[in-house]
Specification:
By secondary structure, the chain is an all-alpha fold. It has 13 helices and 2 strands; from the N terminus they run ααααββααααααααα. 64% of the residues lie in helices and 2% in strands.
Length: 366
């Protein structure tokens, strides 16, 4: 919204600042953090009154989790409020990538909200039907990918098939054109990212910090891929318009910092599916837009690890009747081994930082 102030730059030099993505990214970060800080306590109080018993605790979970009974969920509403307000103020809403990413974020957030609502009202850890939920997620993600693909195709920066192609780290010239099937591939990436973050959100602060780390990493990637000079220097694919996504990712970091203030142990509120699905979908959308889907598996390796632990556990149990892990997702396995919650969380944060550095290194290794 405020980007229109650039038009006043001819008369007032100060307004030239609004032209720069870096300035608006910093402003979006500050704005979203302020929104969450200011309205967070009021929202937490409201959710606590409305939800009563709060988020249900898994009966087969670690014993230490039962003391968290009564903690309200749907804290993702705080995060989404910060992101949306910042986006409306600082992002270029005529940018296809920004609109498509917001569509996924709000769409996934709505699905997560309904899931949380069912869990709270029915006091069960079983919410929305899995098949129906995935179907809606794929529909929303597919629509977003279709528009992002069309924007990349029409930009003509890398050829007529660039928008529908998969790119690979470490090499620039090798791509695989999927045609219209790229919608399915991109949709899968976004849905997988959303559900991977959702699986990771099981301990106080465990999901939000790796999300902020991934957002910061993709903020750098989005800015570089959207800049012709930097992308040419680094020999990465130039995707016009994706630089604007850095503003949105700045808003994610700010909202995440604000939420962490209230989610730090002992948590006053849980993110819930409302936040985890939305944030995962957002990161996945940026990865698709910037053509760094494979790099996302490195930067978001912690989320991949959590997802694989569930797949392995379920698959192995169905085949043999035995378990590989003491409990899945894997963060609960380490709790069962005797690690304290803070040990699991901080060590997983360290892993997330290392993987982010590894993912960013692919920008120069060509």
């Amino acid at each position: 919204m405020l980007i229109w102030l650039v038009e006043l730059a001819d008369h007032f030099q100060f307004f030239n600042l609004f032209r720069y993505i870096t300035f608006r990214t910093g402003a979006a970060l500050f704005t979203s953090a302020l929104v969450v800080f200011l309205f967070g306590p009021m929202m937490i109080s409201s959710l606590r009154v409305r939800q009563g018993k709060g988020q249900p605790i898994r009966a087969d979970g670690p014993q230490t989790h039962f003391k968290k009974a009564g903690t309200p969920t749907m804290g993702g509403l705080m995060i989404l409020a910060g992101i949306v307000v910042s986006a409306l103020l600082w992002a270029d809403l005529s940018n296809v990538y920004v609109v498509a990413t917001l569509l996924v974020t709000l769409g996934f957030g709505a699905i997560g909200f309904y899931d949380d609502y069912l869990k709270v009202t029915k006091q069960t850890d079983k919410g929305f039907s899995g098949k129906a939920r995935l179907g809606l997620e794929f529909l929303i993600a597919g629509i977003a990918v279709y528009f992002m693909m069309g924007s990349a195709l029409h930009s003509g920066a890398q050829g007529s098939t660039f928008g529908s192609s998969i790119t690979f780290p470490f090499v620039k010239d090798f791509m695989i054109d999927l045609g219209i099937f790229f919608v399915l591939f991109g949709g899968f990436v976004i849905v997988a990212a959303g559900n991977a973050v959702n699986l990771t959100d099981g301990l106080d602060g465990l999901a939000i910090v790796p999300v902020m780390i991934a957002a910061a990493s993709f903020g750098v990637i989005a800015y570089l891929t959207g800049n012709a000079v930097f992308s040419n220097y680094l020999q990465i694919h130039f995707v016009p318009g994706t630089g604007e996504l850095a503003v949105l990712l700045g808003a994610v970091i700010g909202a995440g910092l604000g939420f962490l203030w209230f989610n730090a142990p002992p948590a006053a509120i849980f993110m819930g599916d409302t936040g985890s699905l939305a944030l995962g979908g957002l990161i996945g959308s940026v990865a698709v837009a910037t053509k760094h889907e494979i790099v996302m598996a490195i930067i978001g390796g912690l989320f991949v690890m959590e997802t694989l632990s569930v797949i392995i556990q379920v698959g192995y149990f169905k085949m043999t009747g035995r378990r590989v892990f003491l409990m899945a997702p894997i963060h609960h396995h380490f709790e069962k081994l005797g690690w304290t919650e803070s040990q699991v969380v901080i060590r997983f944060w360290i892993i997330a930082v290392g993987l982010a550095m590894l993912g960013l290194s692919t920008l120069k290794l060509r």
